[in-house]
Amino acid sequence: MKDIYEFLDENQVGYERHDHRAVFTVEEAKEYSPKLDGASTKNLFLRDKKGTRHFLLTVPEDKKVDLKYLSTKIGSSRLSFASPERLKTHLGIEPGAVSLLALANDQEQNVEAFIDQEIWQAEAILCHPLVNTSTLVIPRKDMGQFLEKTGHGVNLIEV
Questions:
Q1: How far apart are CA 83 and CA 88, in angstroms?
Q2: Dihedral pair phi/psi, residue 147, rounded to 5°
């Protein structure tokens, strides 16, 4: 995969970049990331029971996720968190850097992406650019364009 900024620029996806110290959790992001206008997210990389389907779920940072309910909602067997190795294999990133932008690395569309409807209400979405030392503010229309360009599309879900 090429540089994420090249991908964004080539596909005319607008963004505003803000650098900060490395953050690994929502709590650290709240403490060390600048206060930005946009939906703050929590991103879960999940797998089904057999490990044949993989999912990226993006929800508001404070939302609790019931994996049993979610598996029923998306028509999957029991869901669990995927390993760091699976994360690296499918999205090319390390834990702590998970965001919708990692879908640029999923060129075969092996990962199914779902965005909580609440996130899509915001004018902009906050995302890590494949590393956890920056946050990008991406307008919703540009995020929609990004998701189309990666072949994943916008799949909204009520979590």
A1: 9
A2: -65, -35
For the chain, the structural domain boundaries read: 4-157
70 close to 115: Cβ distance less than 8 angstroms: no
Helix, strand, coil distribution of the chain in percent, nearest 5 = 30, 25, 45
- Please state the pTM of the whole predicted model: 0.93
Residue where the block lists tokens 């919703």: 140
CB-CB contact of 33 with 18 (8 Å): yes
Let me know if domain 4-157 sits in CATH 3.90.960.10: yes
How many whole angstroms separate alpha carbon 55 and alpha carbon 78? 12
Reading the chain (159 residues) residue by residue, the pLDDT tens digits are 569 999 999 999 999 999 999 998 888 888 888 889 999 999 999 999 999 999 999 999 999 999 999 999 999 999 999 999 999 999 999 998 999 999 999 999 999 999 999 999 999 999 999 999 999 999 999 999 999 999 999 999 999
Please give the Cα distance from 25 to 37 (Å, whole number). 19
Tokens of 76: 């999957």
